[in-house]
Give the backbone structure.
Amino acid sequence: MAGVNWTALIVFILLFAFITWLGFAAAHWRRGDLDQLHEWGLGGRRFGTIITWFLVGGDLYTAYTFIAVPALAFGAGAIAFFAVPYTIVIYPILFLAFPRLWHVCHKHQYITAADFVRGRFGNRWLALAVTITGIVATMPYIALQLVGLQVVIGAMGVSGSGYTGDLPLVIAFVILAAFTYSSGLRAPASIAIVKDILIYITAFAAIIVVPIQLGGFGKIFSAIPPSKLLLATPPADSTGAYSIYATLALGSALALFLYPHSLTGILSASSGHAIRRNAAMLPGYSFMLGLLALVGFFAIAAGVGSLPEFAAGFKQFGNNFAVPALYLHSFPSWFVGIAFAAIGIGALVPAAIMSIAAANLYTRNIHREFINRNPTDREEAQMAKWVSLIVKFGALVFIVFVPSKYAIYMQLLGGILIVQTLPSVLLGVYTRWFNDWALLIGWAVGIAAGTWMFIAADLTPNFPLVIGGFTFPGYTALYTVVLNLIATIVLTPVFNALGGRQSDATIAADYLV
Amino acid sequence: MDEQSQRAPGWSWWYLLFVIQFVAVLWPPFYNSVEPSWVGIPFFYWYQLLWVIIGAVLTAIVYFATKD
């Protein structure tokens, strides 16, 4: 890539400087004692409906989403739109289960899903399984945020030879690490507001301006090859693309709120009602995500894939370059700066929340459970701050030294792994019927089967399940969590007969909304 | 404690409204077609975007119906 786009770069840097200041200033916002873990790691559980809306939205709709969903539409067509039914079905789940989880966590001062499982089922090994699954699934997710950042930095023409090329990425991450360390969850919560305003401006500009430039939606859709316009009609002996589409949407929705960072956002809400209100308000983001998927089609219609000035970008970043290329093609440089800053800041918000969530998990459910059982509040908060640094540094090393396709594979596998905590966490909110050891074995069965199916399907998340000669291709996460549940249900009476059950630290009234 | 804690937990018939949106969007044969298109947008796309809005309205209805 030849020249640096100075106008875009200066706008980008100014906006980045602003959110850096905001991130540090956030330490003083709704002031609390940051030497306590629930203050640093959950913002003191004081965020009302509006802040929760920004925080959870900033959390769930990451920079990677804004790059990858249109990229999938650009490359593979209609299947990318599974993101829309996915965002439609997550909100009933949020509405029904999570106010209950919020209440019990508030009552017992739980700050992670593993805290809840430890209290509910009284089994430290089951809690450890939930903890490790959470950390392993989160790490590649943080790394993927860096991919989003890398793409926009590259698209502004900032490049270098060898590892100096990664210098801008390193600087962005040092900033992120520093304000997360000093301000905790308050930093991403305040930056999320700026990020969202920028993202909305960016998305709506594309939705309005590009179709006008290209001559309307009719022209855009007529430029899409028929094979990409709709899902392929399944052959006679298979449910084909239909079952892939539906299971991807449902399985991803079930996995979403089990991710540690989603729960961190939800638990920081000030009440169960704030969560319910959010379930009705968050579809605002869903609509935008659907529109953004269409941006991938805009990129096809604008023909950016065959323009010589973008050849180097597509070569380096693949289809992930489609969105940046479209903005460079369709907008003046100053607006490109805003759009790219939106994506870049959109990477930092979830990365900060994810690293806080992983740090909370390590501190509470590994260090406190297995290493130092009686830390002071200050020691506990300090430990979490250090772990948040280590987690981010690990993600940075991963992305600088390992090709980004492995981060993508790991993230796809992460979704399959995290959904295995569904019986203990999501169903645990409703019932104590399951035996704790049965849950642990069900989890292990799901993890093993999921990993095997992922490898057997050539590192893709869709597995062609064959029953009686009929093929049901679908999302491995959904298939394996069913297997997990069957194992848990079958083994529960067995383990109950073998020995006593652990006690439940929670009572029914703790869940009342 | 406030009066909310005395309310019976769990089920409300209003929650059945959620089932509608699950069925409407998780069954691709319903909507995997180009026609009827709207302002040049194939059915597949505008149908699902429309359900985002319907889903939000249904969730809001359930929220207000189960609020107290």
